[in-house]
Amino acid sequence: GNLERRVAEHRTGAKPTAFCTRYNCRKLVYFEEFSNIDEAIERETQIKKWKRARKDKLIDAVNPERVDLMPEEILTSLCSSE
Hints:
By secondary structure, this protein is mainly α. Helices cover 60% and strands 0% of the residues. The model has no long low-confidence stretch (mean pLDDT 84).
């Protein structure tokens, strides 16, 4: 529900997940927006079942350079405004 908060949690280790800890994930390279939470959960479940190569193709289609879509400056400004 709150992408900025989730990215901040992953980067700071505030709520570590096994996957992010194991693979040292710190960048946001892909996301999708949904107006309906059920559709978002369904899509997340669908993507999680895919093999890594298919996920890589999806990311490369929209962000081939794997640029961080949530730069640190945005998170810093969000945290200071709360």
